[in-house]
């Protein structure tokens, strides 16, 4: 009987070793499953980021009038400083004429970061022709009106609501949220447009100081 003990002991030891081996394998499998689960979550996170990027793009009914390609498109404007970008946009020809008359092109283009509330051609057309011509001929008053539309810093839509100091030294008040904002009596018709150094919010009326 004593001769059988070593064999039984050896068999028991072998069984223990096998159990540890199986446990280790099971642990490895769990790690693999965990790694697989983590790797599978990455595409979902990436998709969420893409959706956020899309949601943070331009908004508003007026964006339909922006060219879909070329220098005046949303993508084209993003490459140029703000005054140059505006000059390529067919919605903003009167604004560009006014900025040029006030000698503000270099000032706007060289600024580090701005938010510009840009009146459309239709917005300027609301001003009687004689009054508009008089404004365009008065450089000091024109400069005051135009800089009343500009705020330092690039404001995203979630930063837009509130009272902001303009480059004219006075203030404007923006109300709203999401994709609906008003600036004084003007409504934002195409917002959150990027240029190289500014955020542009196209508005449907000219803001008077």
Automatic annotation (TrEMBL):
<dbReference type="InterPro" id="IPR050904">
    <property type="entry name" value="Adhesion/Biosynth-related"/>
</dbReference>
<dbReference type="Pfam" id="PF02469">
    <property type="entry name" value="Fasciclin"/>
</dbReference>
<dbReference type="GO" id="GO:0005615">
    <property type="term" value="C:extracellular space"/>
</dbReference>
<dbReference type="InterPro" id="IPR000782">
    <property type="entry name" value="FAS1_domain"/>
</dbReference>
<dbReference type="GO" id="GO:0050839">
    <property type="term" value="F:cell adhesion molecule binding"/>
</dbReference>
<feature type="domain" description="FAS1">
    <location>
        <begin position="79"/>
        <end position="207"/>
    </location>
</feature>
<dbReference type="GO" id="GO:0030198">
    <property type="term" value="P:extracellular matrix organization"/>
</dbReference>
<dbReference type="GO" id="GO:0031012">
    <property type="term" value="C:extracellular matrix"/>
</dbReference>
<feature type="signal peptide">
    <location>
        <begin position="1"/>
        <end position="23"/>
    </location>
</feature>
<feature type="compositionally biased region" description="Low complexity">
    <location>
        <begin position="35"/>
        <end position="49"/>
    </location>
</feature>
<feature type="region of interest" description="Disordered">
    <location>
        <begin position="28"/>
        <end position="80"/>
    </location>
</feature>
<dbReference type="GO" id="GO:0007155">
    <property type="term" value="P:cell adhesion"/>
</dbReference>
<protein>
    <submittedName>
        <fullName>Fasciclin domain-containing protein</fullName>
    </submittedName>
</protein>
<dbReference type="InterPro" id="IPR036378">
    <property type="entry name" value="FAS1_dom_sf"/>
</dbReference>
<keyword id="KW-0732">Signal</keyword>
